[in-house]
Amino acid sequence: MPLAADAIRVDLTCGVGDDGRWHGWVGVRVQAAALRGLGLHPDQPSAAATNPSPPAWWHAAAERRAR
Asked: Residue range 5-13: average pLDDT?
């Protein structure tokens, strides 16, 4: 695993939603120093998207192939 276990925090919250059904929420937090080592910290230029997203038809075709 590229990140140390103490650099990641995972929280799970469960409760009744607005519709009356039970829902679960997961929160994941990673220390900024750990992200910097992978080039993923938002302050680093390598963390920003450099190209535009593929067109919508590309996403739809990929989802059809995944099924």
From this structure: 92
Tokens of 66: 């995944």
pLDDT per residue as tens digits for the range 32-44: 888 887 877 777 7
Residue 30's beta-bridge partner residues?
8
Q: Hey, CA dihedral for 50, 52, 58, 59, is it positive or negative? A: positive
Distance CA 26, CA 28 (A): 7
Can you tell me the distance from the alpha carbon of 8 to that of 10, in angstroms, rounded to the nearest whole number?
Answer: 7
What's the per-residue H, E or C state across the chain? CCCCHHHEEEEEEEEECCCCCEEEEEEEEECHHHHHHHCCCCCCHHHCCCCCCCCHHHHHHHHHHHC
4's CB contacts (< 8 A; 6+ apart) are 34
